[in-house]
Amino acid sequence: MSVMKSHVKKFLLTSLMLVSAICHSAEIKGMRFWQSPDSARVVVDLSDPATHNIFYLDNPERLVVDVEQSKLAFNPADLAIQSAFIKRVRTSEQKGSVRVVLDLKKQVKHKSFALKPYQNYGHRLVIDLEDKVAPVSKPKKEKKVNQPKGLRDIVIAVDAGHGGEDPGAIGAKGTKEKVIALRVAKYLASLINKEPGMKAVLVRSGDYYLSLRKRTQIARRNQADFFVSIHADAFHDKRARGASVWVVSQKGASSEIGRWLEQDEKNSELLGGVEDLSNKDKLLQQVLLDLSTTHTQSVSLSAADEVYGYLRKAVPKMHGNKRVQKASFVVLKNPDIPGILVEMAFISNPKEEKLLRTKSHRRKIAESVFKGLRDYFKTYPPSGTLFANKQTRNYTIRKGDTLSEIASRYGVSMAQLKKANQLKNSQLRVGQKLVIPGSGK
Questions:
Q1: pLDDT tens per residue across span 266-285
Q2: pTM of the entire structure?
């Protein structure tokens, strides 16, 4: 009998908990909007998790979101909507639920998902919008330079870390990594665009979220020769300070800071609601990484060395004992695009946060990165570029060098190398000086 009473008691307790959960209303505390060049994100902040249904209506275009067992705790009239997709927001409450209607300016594709509390954010309902009809691409205004016919610019993809829903690290005075990174990225891009023979592509041009996959797609779509990601991270020890330059490591980070930064990159994806790229389609990832050539990794490391050389003269301190450091950053795992990640400083360090808030210091950092990349590409210009056509260069033979490898690296033929250096055969000796002719000659 006592056993039966115990079962009945458990059943009643479970039932009461279930009824309580069903009757409990989640508060819709507010809405936020993020606009990128080709998409928009709507974030609905909730006090508790809530089930939702979403459907599309046309003539006129509307997106309707029913949030079940909820109540409105803000005034939609107070919303500041700046969106290429959303005209206005309307709400109504009925039978203990809230209906949110997004009046749209155009036809859209949509997807929605819930996010659990993370860092400073509570429960969230995220709605992503994209053009249903692909926008007509407008011809981009190219830089006007006296460039020989058939020669192209070296394209640098400049990636400002974090953005939108993901603020990145935050300093004691409220300085957000996403803001500082974008300011430096924009100035770096302006320096690159002023250099004849170079062209910048801003991966993120405003305050909006981009997944790691999207960032690499943008670089590839623009046929980037190089990818540079700008960050200013934090560490649990406020004494940590110094700038650093990183390249990708297939084996993972060897330092505590490196492991911390790897985790930060994964956390960035959690904030945006997209799974870490390294956890998706592992077989495909492995195939892509196996296709990474020694050349791509070599370019990343050589360019990183050049940037490090300038950066250490521009900032009070470089972090770590090594010059260039390695970690398994997903955003740098481009099998066909070499790249680096620059940590400008530790925003968690009060002195370095103060420096990052000054325009002069941010410009010093951007100038250092620019000079390093410019010097690298002047020495090793890709074939068919204005840099490769500008002038002859000199090269000192190292152990293991072959004439065919040198010709391939500089985008010239073996016949051109032999002619420029009056070589009768392909034999080389360590220490020998070679003249590298311009590929346009």
A1: 666 655 655 443 444 444 44
A2: 0.71
